[in-house]
Amino acid sequence: MEGKAMTLVKRSNNTFPSVPSLIDSLFSRELMDWTNTNFSSTDTTLPAVNISETDNEYSIEVAAPGMKRDNFKIKLENNLLSISSEQKEEKSEKADKGKYSRREFSYQSFQRTFNLPENEIDGDKIKAAYADGILTLTLPKREEVKPKPAREIKIA
């Protein structure tokens, strides 16, 4: 499955050295253009994603209600983070005397891919949790890219 990946890279078009908003950067890249990020082989709905940033980490929340923890596959390769899920369900119903039967099945899948900021994420410390229909990934920043507190320099 190939497709276009979203980028988690901070960019700033202003001349001030303030920390640009990661969310603004992502939304300016047509985040909501689902045709560019839905790599599913079916026309399933792509789950909503919330992305936030602190001084220490990025957090990605994926709304995926009804899925099971074991259905998710999360893969980090170089700076590409892929989140995918696949779930199949089949139900059968038959009357006592065989006069009618019903068989239903469903298939849900999705894949989202993100380009992570180069050399900024500590890939060995990424954590994932799934609760109440929300898959949450925590992507810690490497120590050397975290903001350092201001310090006073004495004049000798």
Instruction: Count every beta strand, where a strand is a DSSP E run of 2 or more residues.
Output: 8
How far apart the termini lie comes to 61 Å
The CATH class designation is Mainly Beta
Biggest sheet, spatial arrangement of strands: 1-6-5-4
- Cα gyration radius (Å): 21 Å
* DSSP helix fraction: under 10%
Order of H and E elements: EHEEEEEEE
Shape-level CATH architecture: Sandwich
Strand content: 35-45%
User: Any idea what the shape is?
Assistant: rod-shaped
Q: Please report the number of helical segments.
A: 1
Q: What's the mean pLDDT score?
A: 76
Number of domains: 1
Q: From the 3D structure, determine the CATH topology.
A: Immunoglobulin-like
Identify low-pLDDT runs: 11-43
Major beta sheet, specifics?
Answer: 4 strands, mixed
Question: What does this protein structure show overall?
Answer:
The chain is mainly β. It has one domain: Sandwich (Immunoglobulin-like). The chain is 4% helix and 40% strand. It contains 1 helix and 8 strands. The strands form 2 sheets. A 4-stranded mixed beta sheet has the order 1-6-5-4, with no helix packed on it. Strand 4 (72-77) and strand 5 form a beta hairpin. It starts with 5 loop residues before the first strand and ends in a 16-residue tail after the last strand. Mean pLDDT is 76; it is low at 11-43.
Keywords:
156 residues; mainly beta; Immunoglobulin-like; 4-stranded mixed β-sheet; 4-stranded antiparallel β-sheet; 1 helix; 8 strands
Layout of helices and strands, plus pairs?
Elements: E1 6-7, H1 22-27, E2 49-53, E3 57-63, E4 72-77, E5 80-94, E6 101-115, E7 127-131, E8 134-140
Parallel strand pairs: 1-6
Antiparallel strand pairs: 2-3, 3-8, 4-5, 5-6, 7-8
